[in-house]
Every structure is written in C-alpha cells, then in structure tokens.
Design a protein that fits this description.
The protein has 568 residues and is α+β, with helices and mostly antiparallel strands. The chain contains ten helices and 26 strands. The strands form eight sheets. The chain has a seven-stranded mixed β-sheet, sandwiched between helices. Strands 1-2-4-3-5 form a five-stranded mixed β-sheet. The protein has a three-stranded antiparallel β-sheet with strand order 10-15-24. The structure holds zinc ion.
Length: 568
C-alpha cells in the first residue's frame, strides 16, 4: 500500500519489540514523505496492544484501506491533517497467539519470572505500562505478574510502551482511537481508576434529566467538589412561564447544592448569569408546590413566592450584586480579570464580550471578626480604573452606609418620605405625582458623572442639596459621592474630592417627614472588597462564564486555581 501510494503514505518503524521486531506506523497525508511528521493536526488510530484482540487490527486495516480507496473524496482531510495508523502495537504477542495453545495470550512476551519460557506468570500488559499515573492504585492495573493486567516492573519498562509513548510525545496527536475487542466498552484515559468519572461523564444536564435538580446525596455527594456552570442560561423557566417568574427546578437546584455544601461539599459556581434570579433578590417568583401545582405563571398569584439571595450572601459570600458591572459600558467589553490573593494570586484573563456580574463580599458588610461563618473575599478582580467603591479620585469620598431595616409596622418605601410619591407610583413605576422620573435610579454600575446646569439661576443664591432615597429591600451597598466641582465660565470656582474635609458641604440629615433612617452621609476612606470572583472556605463563585475566557490556557488555569482553593 505504501509503495502504491508514495505521495500519500509513509511507513516507518517507531521502535522495536522485546524480540527485536519493528513496530510499524503508517502516516497518511498529502505529501506524506516530503513533509516532516506532525506538521499538520494529527489523529492516531492504533490496534492490537492486546495480542489476542485480532479483530481490532482488521478494523484498523479496513479503515486504512478505506482512506486510500477514497483519497479523492477525502482530499480536503488529507491535505489538512495527518492520519496515523499503528495496526499492531504488540507484534510479539500477536505472533504468539498464532501458536498452538496460545490463542488467548494478551500481554507482551516479557519473561517476568526468568525461566526462559513464556507461561502464565509472564508478560506485561502494554496499556497498563505507560508512565502517566503508573501504579496509582490496584483498581485499573495489577502488581501481580500472572494477572492479565500486570503493569510491569516500572513506568515504561517495556520497549513496546517506549515506542508508543515516543510516537505520542513526538507527534502530539489531537486525538487517538485505540481499538480493542475485549468487550462493549468505551474506555477513557482516566481508566487507571475504575470509579473515577471521565471529563465527559459527570455533567448533570437538568434538561436531559427531565428538569429534575441533582439530588444532594444521590448525585452530588459522590464528588468532593462540583462545578455548577449555568452557561448562557439566564432565568430557568418552564413552558408557559412569563417574565418575573422562574421554575421550581431552578430553586431545587440551589437547595440541592446548599444541602451538599452543608454536608461538607465544595462548589465552583459560574456562568454568564449565575444565580441571576436569586441575585435579583425578590424580583422573581416560583411555585413551591410544583409539580403538585403547575409552575408559577403569574407572579402575583398567592401560591407563588419570591426567590431571595440568602444562598448567595451566606454560602457564596456574595452580599451585594451588581448586574453587568464587570463590563465597560462605554465599549461593551468586559474588563480584564486579575487574581489577587490566595490560589488566585497572579491569575490574568480576558473575556469575550459577555454578561458579567460583580459582587461585594459578605465580609465587607459583615466583618469576619464578628461573623467568621461568613468569611469571604473577592480574589478575582475586575481591572477597571477605580473600582465602583474606590474613591473616584484620591482616597476619600462620602458615603451613605448600607441598608437599614424597615421600621416595624412600616408599609414599605412609600412611607420613607411623602416626597417619594412624587417620583414613583405604587408599583414602583417611574411616574409619580410630579411626572415621569427615574433618570438616575437603579444600579449605577460604577462611578457616573452627573452635571446640573445652574445658568437659569444666574445672579441668585442657590442651595444645592444631594439627597438619596431607597426602599429597604433594594438599597444594596448605598451611594458614594466624590469629586464635586462648580465651574464658572469654564473655570473651576470651587471643588472638593473630600480628601481633607467635607469641602464646604454639610450633612443635613433626612428632611422633615422622613421615616426613621439610620444612614447618613459620612466621609470615608473605606475600600470595599469587591470583584468578579468570590471565595469562601467551601465555594468559588464567578460572575462570568469560564467559557467566556478567550484562551484555553486561562480557562484551565482558573478552574485549576479554583479546585486548588477548594480541595487544597
Ligand atoms: Zn484490549
């Protein structure tokens, strides 16, 4: 075949067996002999590592003949890639199975007991002899020479292994199919340990599992750590559900993961919108009695109840949520990611345009000294110019403090101050008694410049007052103010960055008619622990999808760091 297809086929010996026979490899690709080996992406098909598995060589040879017979149809594949064939990886053993009484010999012909004969106590299993994970346990290979899975005296002790390992290292194949015929099995490289799932296995896809959450004990507890990656899912919903609602399955999943953590599990949670409904804290409703009752279809239906962010705050260390706050709103591109602290120190990553979250760590609000159970940090930072909580300039700003509890018996935000009704209606719609508003409400996603034109008041005395109003449920971290300036005809007449004092401002307190408030503006140089990735002792919570990282190296690096953080 090689001689009949000189332009396409190159045959070579990749090493010798124990008995000195060549182990042959066939490279099939356009200009096979002219081009160096391994210059194109290569795939390896190999067979008969196990001497008695004759049919694997037949399958391999049939595939090789098929490729040559269809070289025209396969031109594109042969132009762009290399196909490699090793039809008999264990020629000594293969030959031995053609001798009387030895049809079911499996291993190579190593005379392990040194008696000069090949008998039951001899031979090394060539695919248990590779150096990777050699002798890690007694599950997938054996220390006993008479065993059919005897792994040999040491890593790559057999010349057949050295030959194959050399080819693998030299060509760096993109993929390999190693044909065997022992049984109806698909074996993965992790087969050195029989109970270890492969990278393909332990993915629990709720949609494929009848939209059932993974059981905390039945599924999750089999693993020391689990990865809960939500991909591009935003709000899990069933057919017929409307905006403002979410499926019971989404809530069940969170509870299953929470139970698993309570039992000592470890979690990496990530995605483009990981736990979005819960982070929105009270804005989405679900039906707790589903499946006995149908999924929540109308948020205000009495059986529907709200989804809150307790799990994010107290288990994942994400106390305050900022929607899309890792994205530069001017360019639409996520900021660079930078690891600071612990296992994440030195991590660097770039994200493709994608939705991002940022969080204030729970310990920034509930200090770890007082609340050690909720100890958390934000070791994966968004590399943005001045975080949303770093002063805009200098190291001081003024701040309102964070949310207060509603006064007992209070009737919600409309009681905070009668003026609130000027700006918003009873259902929080942005139209109040004084018209349509809402221009500056909501999450600012970082520092925003705000300008007021005072020219209509030229020649008059103006008192400028900056007030901030919020209900108790959605206040979040509060409001920061920095860098105030008055400009007159283009020149700065007065300015302050609050570095030394209040810069002429006074803290007035809530206006008359206000509900009780424990917050007020104060000068601070406090820096909040905030970032796109949070860590607690048992969890890593990323406000972005690992799949959005632009390089495989960064994806691998971040998952590795996360696992090292979780598993030590
Ligand atoms: Zn086999």
């Amino acid at each position: 075949m090689a001689n009949a297809n000189k332009d396409l086929v190159k045959i070579q010996s990749i090493g010798r067996t124990l008995k000195g026979q060549d182990i042959l490899a066939v490279k099939v690709t356009t200009l096979a002999r002219a081009l160096p080996d391994g210059v194109k992406p290569a795939t390896l098909f190999s067979a008969t590592q196990h001497a008695r598995e004759w049919i694997s060589t037949e399958v391999e040879m049939r595939l090789l003949k098929y490729v040559l017979a269809n070289r025209t149809a396969l031109k594109d594949l042969l132009d762009r890639t290399e196909l490699w064939f090793v039809p008999v990886a264990n020629p000594d053993g293969y030959d031995f199975t053609f001798t009387e009484g030895n049809r079911l010999w499996r291993k190579n012909l190593r005379d392990v007991n040194g008696d000069g004969k090949i008998t039951i106590g001899d031979g090394v299993d060539p695919n248990r002899n590779f150096p990777t994970n050699f002798h890690c346990d007694e599950e997938g290979s054996s220390s006993i020479p008479s065993s059919d899975t005897y792994r040999g005296a040491g890593p790559a002790s057999e010349p057949e292994t050295v030959a194959m390992d050399g080819l693998l290292r030299r060509i760096r194949f993109k993929g390999q199919v190693n044909y065997h015929s022992y049984g109806p099995l698909l074996l993965y490289p992790q087969g050195w340990q029989i109970a270890t799932k492969t990278a393909d296995d332990p993915i629990y896809d709720m949609d494929k599992m009848g939209r059932k959450a993974p059981h905390a004990l039945g599924v999750l507890s089999h693993y020391k750590a689990v990865v809960w990656e939500t991909g591009d899912d935003i709000i899990p919903r069933s057919t017929g559900q409307v905006p403002g609602t979410t499926s019971k399955g989404g809530v069940d999943t969170e509870l299953a993961v929470r139970d698993y953590l309570n039992e000592g599990g470890k979690l990496l949670h990530a995605g483009k919108y990981p736990s979005y409904a819960a982070n929105a804290n009270g804005q989405y409703y679900f039906q707790p009695d589903q499946p006995a009752q149908r999924e929540c279809a109308t948020p205000t239906d009495p059986p529907c109840i709200q989804v809150f962010n307790d799990f994010q705050q107290y288990w994942l260390g994400a106390y305050v949520f900022f929607d899309d706050a890792g994205t530069d709103q001017a360019t639409g591109r996520p900021y660079e990611l930078k690891g600071v602290g612990g296992r994440f120190d030195g991590f660097a990553g770039t994200l493709a345009p994608s939705h991002t979250n940022s969080y204030v760590a729970t310990s920034a609000i509930l200090p770890a000294r007082q609340f050690p159970r909720f100890a958390s940090s934000a070791p994966v930072k968004w590399a943005r110019p001045g975080g949303p909580f770093d002063p805009h300039t200098g190291s001081w700003d003024v701040y309102t403090g964070s949310s207060c509890a509603p006064p007992s018996g209070g009737a919600g935000w409309r009681t905070i101050h009668p003026f609130t009704q000027r700006y918003q209606g009873p259902a929080c719609e942005p139209t109040g008694t004084s018209g349509a508003w809402n221009a500056a409400s909501g999450n600012s996603a970082g520092w925003q410049q705000w300008k007021i034109d005072l020219t209509p008041y030229a020649g008059k005395q103006v008192e400028l007052s900056i007030s901030y109003v919020s209900d108790w449920g959605t206040q979040g971290a509060g409001v920061f103010l920095d860098d105030f300036a008055v400009t007159l005809d283009g020149a700065t007449a007065e300015q302050s960055s609050f570095e030394a004092d209040l810069g002429g401002w006074t803290v007035a307190g809530p206006p008359a008619g206000s509900s009780v408030s424990i917050n007020n503006w104060f000068r601070t140089d406090q820096v909040f622990e905030e970032g796109g990735g949070l860590a607690t002792k048992d969890t890593v919570y990323l406000g972005f999808g690992v799949e959005s990282l632009t390089s495989q190296a960064a994806r691998t690096d971040l998952v590795k760091r996360s696992m090292r953080h979780l598993l030590g």
